[in-house]
Amino acid sequence: MASRKLLLLPGDGIGPESMAEVKKLIAAMNADLNAGFETEEALVGGSAYDAHGQSISEADVATAMAADAVLFGAVGGPKWDSVPYEVRPEAGLLRLRKDMELFANLRPAICYPALAASSSLKPEVVEGLDILILRELTGGVYFGEPKEIIDLGNGQKRGVDTQVYETYEIERIAAAAFELARTRGNKVCSMEKRNVMKSGVLWNEVVTATHKNGYQDVELTHMLADAGGMQLVRWPKQFDVIVTDNLFGDMLSDVAAMLTGSLGMLPSASLGAPDAATGKRKALYEPVHGSAPDIAGQGIANPIAMIASFAMCLRYSFNMVAEADRLEAAISAVLDDGLRTRDIMSNGMTEVGTTQMGDAIVAKFRAA
Ligand code: NAI
Ligand code: MG
């Protein structure tokens, strides 16, 4: 039986409360399915700073580098607002992203049928939606040089940001897109603005070449990113995987996320390059939300974003596609039963706390 090494980093605020529900699922999968998960747990963020003055320890960074996957809760809170910049809670997460070279950010937009009515779009447009935005995370205009504000000396200044992409950066994100598509609907739509940007011309060329070179079983289409934004709101179900650069991905993933509702529901993943020997990618899975200090410790946080992040971990790090489908179906079934945490509560539904929501999902998963 495979051993599957997970590092759990619950963090601060509602991070530990949400992670507790994932631990129940891990235990259930080890017991029922002989899944072989081996977990280690460590401090990150403010809780790590309180314990040893760093937002993550060197030993724990090493454990993360050696793990098959990292599950991350959330970090931060007003308690640590005045700690020095280098050791602030977010520094732990940034350090992991950098050391693990997590260049591919996965943001799914899933609309559970029971919540379709609360979307800002018509229910039939979003019901059953399941798409994945793949955003390049370590290149592009957020990092390109020069990046500066120049004083022109005549009362004017010039702000400069530079969009830069090199072939290898586009190749690796395109390859990740095609591989992810194979575990889903087998379609990729690449978005750039080749009509006005040289980096967009190169993006289009390299994605097309990567597709020819080993991924022709996956359907590839191209769209200009502005038209893509329009299509995302008009008929999002036409897409499966959308791959795009850092800037367009930042915006398009937030748009796509809000098609489907609450922050408490949204998972994410960040992947690194495949290991040359094993082909396995370094990976970190985390909810999109933060540490929610306003509700921490009250037992009312929605654990679904964290649980859905674990479902992504099953799908993308362990190729446990059937189990990932089953877990997502369990989340959907519990919502169909009318269970709601406070953030997604509506008339006629049953309000439950964090542990009740987690327990109900575990029970559905085990029974399926
Ligand atoms: P937040 O996401 O923590 O909270 C925003 C609002 O959504 C709050 O009203 C909160 O109660 C609610 N909310 C969030 N997740 C929820 C859940 N699972 N269930 C029910 N309600 C939920 O963002 P905010 O308030 O801007 O930041 C709080 C702290 O979290 C800050 O210190 C921020 O720096 C940090 N943060 C950390 C992130 C991370 O660890 N990756 C990401 C975003 C923020
Ligand atoms: Mg954003």
UniProtKB/TrEMBL annotation:
Q: Which residues bind NAD(+)?
A: 77-90, 290-302
Cofactor-binding details, from the entry:
Binds 1 Mg(2+) or Mn(2+) ion per subunit.
Q: Do the record's keywords include Isomerase?
A: no
Could you tell me the keywords of this UniProt record?
Amino-acid biosynthesis, Branched-chain amino acid biosynthesis, Cytoplasm, Leucine biosynthesis, Magnesium, Manganese, Metal-binding, NAD, Oxidoreductase
Subcellular localization, as worded in the UniProt entry: Cytoplasm
Q: In which pathway is this protein known to take part?
A: Amino-acid biosynthesis; L-leucine biosynthesis; L-leucine from 3-methyl-2-oxobutanoate: step 3/4
One cellular component GO annotation, for this chain's record?
cytosol
Q: What domain of life?
A: Bacteria
Q: Which positions in this protein are listed as binding substrate?
A: R97, R107, R135, D226
Spell out the NCBIfam families in the cross-references. Answer: leuB
Subunit description: Homodimer.
Q: Is Ribonucleoprotein included in the keywords of this UniProt record?
A: no
Q: Name one GO molecular function term.
A: magnesium ion binding
Q: What does this protein do?
A: Catalyzes the oxidation of 3-carboxy-2-hydroxy-4-methylpentanoate (3-isopropylmalate) to 3-carboxy-4-methyl-2-oxopentanoate. The product decarboxylates to 4-methyl-2 oxopentanoate.
Give GO terms for biological process: L-leucine biosynthetic process
Which residues are tagged with the site Important for catalysis? Y142, K193
What cofactor does this one take? Answer: Mn(2+); Mg(2+)
User: Which organism is the protein's source?
Assistant: Aquamicrobium aerolatum DSM 21857
**Could you identify this protein by its name?**
3-isopropylmalate dehydrogenase
Instruction: Give the primary localization class.
Output: cytoplasm
Q: Which residues form the Isopropylmalate dehydrogenase-like domain?
A: 5-361
Q: According to the UniProt entry, what is the EC number of this protein? A: 1.1.1.85
Pfam families per record: Iso_dh
Reaction(s) catalysed by this chain, per the record, are: (2R,3S)-3-isopropylmalate + NAD(+) = 4-methyl-2-oxopentanoate + CO2 + NADH
| Gene from which this protein is expressed | leuB
**Family from the record:** Belongs to the isocitrate and isopropylmalate dehydrogenases family. LeuB type 1 subfamily.
